[in-house]
Every structure is written in C-alpha cells, then in structure tokens.
Design the sequence.
C-alpha cells in the first residue's frame, strides 16, 4: 500500500490544449460543433479521457462550457454543461474546479479497485430517526 501513496504535487492535473489536440482526442461530433459554435478554449487531463471546452454564445451572459468524459469502453459522454457565465474567466474557473474534482474522484475509484473494494462498500448511508430528546417545559436559568 505504501507504493500507492505519492508525494503531493502542486502540478495542475488539467492543462490548456490547442484546438487541434482537442479534435484529435475527441471523435468528430457535429452535435457539439453545432451547439458550441464559437469555441475559444480547450482543456484536457493528462490521459486525455477528460476534456473541456469553453464557447461564446449569444447574449450578455453568453459564456458556456462543456465537459466530456471517456468511459472504460472508450465512449464519450457529457457529464457537465454550464452556461450563462458573464465572462470567460468565470467559466474557466468553474470548469477547472469541476475537472480537478472529477480527477480526484477518478483516482479514488482507481485506488479502491486496486485493493478490491467496491465503491458502494465505502458509502455510509447512515440511519434516520424521528426520535427527538424530550424538551424541558421550562428553560433552566
């Protein structure tokens, strides 16, 4: 287990990539191109299975982003779409925070699978109870 733990790094797991690299990592997607016509920034994790793009839409709050993820079979799906950002900077910050969070979850899933633990075995559903302790009639002074 000790070899699984690495020294913490300040390196950002998500990087900005050129459009040409984004297009190589993502199969031709006319639906994405029609929906996000004016793409201006592209992002990827180190393995290329988590991608993001920011686009300018019409309107005042016209910045949008989409996150695309490749599953274990290699199929691409869209886990996150956000729109109505007032600036590209706001869209970029939200996109990067989401992608970094997704990267951390993927690493936890990988670690669990390496030690043979099902993810569902780690969740604590807890219990709920409608019982409340009795409340005194008078508040002590």
Sequence:
């Amino acid at each position: 287990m000790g070899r699984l733990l690495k020294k913490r790094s300040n390196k950002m797991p998500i990087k900005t990539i050129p459009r040409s690299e984004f297009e190589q990592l993502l199969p031709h997607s006319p639906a994405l191109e029609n929906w996000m016509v004016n793409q201006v920034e592209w992002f990827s994790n180190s393995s290329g299975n988590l991608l993001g793009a920011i686009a300018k839409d019409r309107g005042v709050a016209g910045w949008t982003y989409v996150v695309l993820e490749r599953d274990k079979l290699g199929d691409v799906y869209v886990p996150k779409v956000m729109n109505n950002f007032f600036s590209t900077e706001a869209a970029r910050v939200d996109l990067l925070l989401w992608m970094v969070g997704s990267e951390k979850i993927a690493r936890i899933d990988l670690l669990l699978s390496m030690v043979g633990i099902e993810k569902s075995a780690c969740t604590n559903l807890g219990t709920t109870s409608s019982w409340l302790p009795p409340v005194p009639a008078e508040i002590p002074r």
